[in-house]
Each structure stands twice: as C-alpha cells, then as structure tokens.
Amino acid sequence: GDSVTQMEGPVTLSEEAFLTINCTYTATGYPSLFWYVQYPGEGLQLLLKATKADDKGSNKGFEATYRKETTSFHLEKGSVQVSDSAVYFCALSDRGSGNTGKLIFGQGTTLQVKP
Amino acid sequence: DAGVIQSPRHEVTEMGQEVTLRCKPISGHDYLFWYRQTMMRGLELLIYFNNNVPIDDSGMPEDRFSAKMPNASFSTLKIQPSEPRDSAVYFCASSYGTERVEETQYFGPGTRLLVL
User: Fold this and answer.
1) pLDDT value at position A97?
2) Which of A39, A86, B48, B112 has the smallest number of CB atoms closer than 10 Å to its CB?
3) Which residues does chain B have within 8 Å of residue A99's beta carbon, measured at their own beta carbons?
4) What pLDDT band is residue A95 in, cutting at 50, 70 and 90?
C-alpha cells in the first residue's frame, strides 16, 4: 500500500542554519503531497502542498518540490528560526482506490532550533 | 470560519469511566477524521466519515471505541470503558474531498485525555 518515510529525528540546528528534512513516498497513481507542522500543544497545520510532479510548494520560507522520478518531497528552509521548532509531518493523499479523502502520514520529524 | 472545534480540550477521568469527545467540522466539509497521537505510536487514523457515513474504521483499537456522526456538523468519539492506555491526544480533522485540489485536512486543537 501507499506509504511515507521521513528522516529520523530529532534534528537540532542553530538559528540561521539551512534545513532539510527528507521525505520519500510509495504510491499508486498520482498523489498530492503535503507538509504539515505541529507546534507544541497544538494540532497539525498545513505548511505547504504540491498536487503534481515538478510543482513547488512554498510558505513561510519553507519549500518542497514534488519529484516523481525520485519519489521525494524534501522540505527545505534557507535560514531557520527558533520559532520553527516543531514537529514536521510529510503526507500523501491516498488515491490508490480513487479519491478516498484519506491522507497517509509519515512518522514526523522533530526540529529543535537553538539560539 | 472558526475552524475545527473540539471539546473538551482536556479530560481527566478514572479507569472504567465513559469518555465522550466531540467535534464540529468546518462548515461545508464532507470528510471527517478522528486521529490519536501518542509518543509511542505517533499519529494514528482511527476512523473517518464521508457525508456522515463511516468509511473506514479499521484503525479503531477495539470494541470499547465507537464513533458517530449524526449530522454534517457534529461527531463524537466515545470510549467505554476507558483504560489508562487510552491516554493520548485525540484530534479531529475535516476536509472537502470532492475536488482533488481540496484534499487538505484541517485539524482541530485536540483533546488531551488522561485516564488514571
């Protein structure tokens, strides 16, 4: 079945460092891809998404490009801030059986940014 | 829109008691999802509904868990009897799934459940 694999955390960076969180997926058909962020004590929020190959999603300085050839959707940010400390989830839309409306989530990657 | 609304935000109960979690999805959304999040198991999909009808409840842990959606603006997740291992954060999410571009799920703030 469809699945999402994220790099293990926690990822610890200093402020203004470059961030990459790897995400690869296995899917039938052409899923949409998502990054969600969860700040401490809160629910998940959509960070960015891409609906087709080569699309780039971007928001708040974060970017991710839908790479069909490598089945990847890596999250990047050029200069992280302490306020970016959170858990990041990669997800894909489960379209193996048509539009089920369901998302498949990765296990989450914790990012800690130190001042 | 107020977003997805969940109540209560925190619940502390004793083992054996019945617990009812409530969710109001975003108006107009036709999918509703219940998730559970723990440190050990991460984020788990318990059950989801489309147009108030349960589509997939394969994630519901056991018969102690039940979920209903009596109308488009309200859903409940009930645990009876509750056990300490049910302690977790329970999230409700909704989406408008009819059009492919609108697969985004919107999450509520969660209910933190502690069963003593």
Assistant:
1) 55
2) A39
3) 97-98, 100, 103
4) low
